[in-house]
């Protein structure tokens, strides 16, 4: 009976402490509801690891995930490190329009499961280097300010040291030349990065539409989080659903940046994919001539920054090349 009373007293003390401290946790965005940790709009899996020197590697879908290069790269890293689920949005429908990000239906062990799009975050504990969060970010359709704030609260709660965003976009580049990667100006001066990155100017002249997720970068800078981002430029006329050459290029940069094993770079698959394009266009002289024009444009770029001038293709030629890309996707 005395043991039961002591246990009850202990439980009451812990409960009172929780009630008293709850406003402090709430102020920092951290809550516990039904024994689940909440940070902003995210629910976090427990127990939470004891992170050291935590870095976040993130992609942003679909704004700068052309060819799914960011998605494929993160998935490879997650498989390599045996990454575990860390967190996700408690109610993704608050932020995403499911007529634009469609749920998918799958059969898993004979049972039909509906997979709802979400911002999924995984973690991996490093060995000699930093620990990692792998973040599959998505552009929100609603309540974007709360979405960004929740991410900032998460970074702050776990003392994330570096935010590294990987991405891909379509550009007027030929598939017959090495893919270029543009990135933060300071990247080229880091060990092992020379020659892999075409530095962007620290202040660009671009004005126009952008992603609300760029607010995340601005907010993290206020917290003195180190910012790194780099982007691979892909042939705009192919528009492959999964561009393996672009994926290999992103992975090559990450391997140099973090000293990951070089066998993570699976370049052969990308070489085969682009070689199939050569076979498809072999007997189309008009297409070959236009790709030659793209090659000249690529070779003539003298600036350190990737030129923004576009090389226009005739609609019929662009359609033909995109059909080749679709055939390659269908054959994967």
Folded structure, characterized:
The protein is α/β, with parallel strands linked by helices and about 325 residues long. It has a single domain, classed as Rossmann fold (3-Layer(aba) Sandwich). The chain contains eight helices and 13 strands. The protein starts with a helix and ends with a helix.
- Note the main sheet: 11 strands, mixed
Strand order of the largest sheet: 1-2-3-5-8-9-4-10-13-11-12
Second rung of CATH, namely the architecture:
3-Layer(aba) Sandwich
Which structural class matches the secondary elements? alpha/beta
As residue ranges, the low-confidence spans are 1-7, 302-311
Give me the count of strands: 13
CA-atom Rg in angstroms = 23 Å
Strand content: 15-25%
Intertermini distance: 68 Å
Q: How are helices and strands ordered from N to C?
A: HEEEEHEEEEEHEEEHEHHHH
Mean pLDDT: 84
Share of helical residues: 25-40%
Structural domain count: 1
- The CATH topology: Rossmann fold
Q: Work out the helix count.
A: 8
- CATH domain class: Alpha Beta
Overall shape: it is globular
> What is the CATH superfamily?
PAC-like subunit
């Amino acid at each position: 009976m005395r043991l039961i009373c002591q246990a009850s007293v202990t439980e009451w003390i812990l409960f009172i402490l929780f009630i008293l401290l709850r406003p402090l946790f709430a102020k920092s965005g951290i809550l516990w509801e039904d024994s689940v940790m909440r940070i902003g709009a995210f629910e976090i899996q427990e127990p939470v690891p004891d992170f050291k020197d935590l870095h976040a590697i993130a992609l942003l879908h679909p704004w700068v995930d052309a060819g799914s290069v960011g998605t494929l790269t993160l998935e490879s890293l997650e498989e390599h490190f045996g990454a575990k689920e860390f967190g996700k949005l408690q109610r993704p429908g608050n932020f995403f329009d499911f007529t634009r990000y469609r749920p998918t239906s799958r059969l898993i062990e004979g049972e039909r499961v509906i997979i709802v799009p979400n911002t999924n975050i995984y973690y991996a504990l490093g060995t000699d280097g930093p620990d990692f969060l792998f973040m599959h970010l998505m552009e929100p359709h609603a309540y974007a300010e709360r979405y960004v704030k929740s991410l900032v609260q998460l970074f702050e709660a776990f003392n994330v040291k570096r935010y590294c965003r990987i991405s891909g976009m379509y550009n007027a580049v030929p598939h017959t030349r090495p893919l270029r990667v543009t990135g933060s100006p300071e990247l080229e001066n880091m060990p092992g990065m020379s020659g892999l990155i075409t530095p962007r100017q620290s202040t660009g002249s671009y004005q126009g539409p952008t992603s609300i997720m760029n607010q995340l970068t601005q907010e993290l800078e206020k917290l003195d989080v180190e910012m790194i981002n780099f982007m691979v430029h892909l042939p705009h006329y192919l528009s492959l659903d999964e561009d393996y050459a672009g994926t290999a290029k992103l992975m090559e940069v990450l391997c140099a940046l973090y000293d990951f094993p070089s066998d993570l770079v699976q370049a052969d698959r990308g070489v085969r994919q682009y070689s199939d394009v050569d076979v498809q266009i072999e007997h189309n002289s008009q297409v070959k001539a236009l790709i030659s024009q793209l090659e000249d444009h690529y070779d003539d770029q003298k600036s350190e920054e990737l030129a923004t001038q576009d090389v226009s293709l005739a609609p019929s030629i662009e359609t033909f090349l995109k059909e080749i890309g679709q055939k390659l996707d269908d054959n994967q």
